[in-house]
Amino acid sequence: MPLHVPPAPAPALRSVLTALGSPTAVRGTRTPAALRAAQGPVRPELPLPVHEMDGFAHASAASRAVPRTRLTGWRFLLDDRGAKGARGVQGRGIEGGAYSGVAEAVLTADGWTFGQFCEGPYVLSTVRALRQAQLLPTPYQPRLLSVPELYMLTLWLHGDLSADAGSGSPEPSDLLIPLAPAPPGIPAHQPHRVDALLPMLTRRLVTAPLMRTPV
Questions:
Q1: H-type helices in 44-120, by residue range?
Q2: How far, in Å, CA of 160 to CA of 138, rounded?
Q3: Overall average pLDDT of the 81-85 stretch
């Protein structure tokens, strides 16, 4: 079933396009090697809002049942297949993509601004999870959900296709697909209903040390 990819805020997209057009940003020492080596135009595609579970480790049992989340940014997969045949920001879909990393826009007091280029296992894992989601019989609005205390990132499949992608909390019937690497005891790339996965996260938090936010 096709995913209903939400449009990113125009200023967030512009900040990423500006960074991609800057030789200083694209060729910087902290820029992913694959992005620095890209031979053709690189396009930001498949924008996903990044939400973070707020204080999950210290919340009460009742609060964990309906976790608080907050929007921290928007991430764009960077497709370096070049501009030929492109169909805009949401691009040619997930199939066959040659993704060289992700670009992130973050919200500041002055509005949306470019944050960073990223690489690592979460890039390919995000693509894999999106492809999994396309095979599900129900359409969803895809988002990313971070659990900082577990150093965990998930693909959040929200059932309300018309919802504002920058707000809201996971519904019990929404699906979460943990991205690899996932915390011990939580299988990656296995879709879970929110109301089934949250108790697993709670049990994991009892024994897991606090960790930094995934990138």
A1: 61-65
A2: 11
A3: 47
If one counts every other C-beta atom within 10 angstroms of the C-beta of residue 14, the result is 15
The answer to the question of residue 73 being in a domain is: yes
- Asked whether residue 88 carries a pLDDT value surpassing 70, the answer given is no
Q: Which residue has better confidence, 39 or 212? A: 39
Single-letter amino acid code for the residue at 99? Y
3-state SS, residue 64: helix
Report the distance separating Cα 67 and Cα 77, nearest Å. 27
Residue 18: C-alpha distances to residues 12, 77, 79, 107 (Å): 10, 15, 16, 16
Give the range of the structural domain holding residue 85, as residue numbers without chain letter: 10-207
Instruction: Name the domain count of the chain.
Output: 1
Is 3 domain-assigned? no
Q: Strand 69-79 vs strand 99-108: parallel, antiparallel, or unpaired? A: antiparallel
Q: Tell the burial category of 17 from Cβ atoms under 10 Å away from its Cβ (0-12, 13-18, 19+).
A: middle
pTM as predicted: 0.84
In a domain, 215, yes or no: no
